[in-house]
Amino acid sequence: MRIGGIVKQSFIDWEGKVTTVVFTRGCNFRCGYCHNPSLVLPHLLVNETDIPENQLFDYLKTRREWLDGVVVTGGEPTIHADLESFLEAIKNLGYLIKLDTNGSNPMFLKKLLARKLVDFVAMDVKTVLDLGKYQQIIGANIPDLIRKIDDSIQILNASNIDFQLRTTLIPKYHSPDIIQQLQTQFSYCNYQLQEFRAGDTIENRVVEKKEMP
Ligand code: SF4
To answer: Is 157 buried (19+), middle (13-18) or exposed (0-12) by CB count in 10 A?
Structure first.
């Protein structure tokens, strides 16, 4: 697995649980508000060295008594074919696993759920399921995007694991009408609106790169 960062102990990334958080490298989206540009933008990725997997596993082996689980986030973890074996190795150490995903890889998600390799999924729903509106936010052209996002939601609905859908609110994209539509559509489940926080974002880094001589 391409690991870009590890937070050894977190009390805030999985409600009620003490976790280690693993940040995977690379993402198929380019959300302007993304706070992890160094995990996403290729020109920043080339300057970074991956953290070896054994560094993570050596740590996890010594912390089983103190940690409840591992949060696997990104980037987008499901773009990595070895995610399955990576999660399996974490499971074999006796940990619960929370997976964060943008929902663009429903078949892989379905397989991970069928194999019981995840215990909780937090999935971004960037906005209402409209191609134009979605693409404005993610800044990428993904084939069959809306079908894939919808399939991921349906797969989570049909599963028997806990999941959360969440939307980061960007004032220029999320009008009160869109927020209302989202809240209505997902009123049946654990749905969370998150405030956008300004900072080191992809939008800033792309502007910075364009301005470089
Ligand atoms: S916020 Fe967007 S670009 Fe950043 S990791 Fe998530 S899906 Fe990828």
So the answer is: exposed
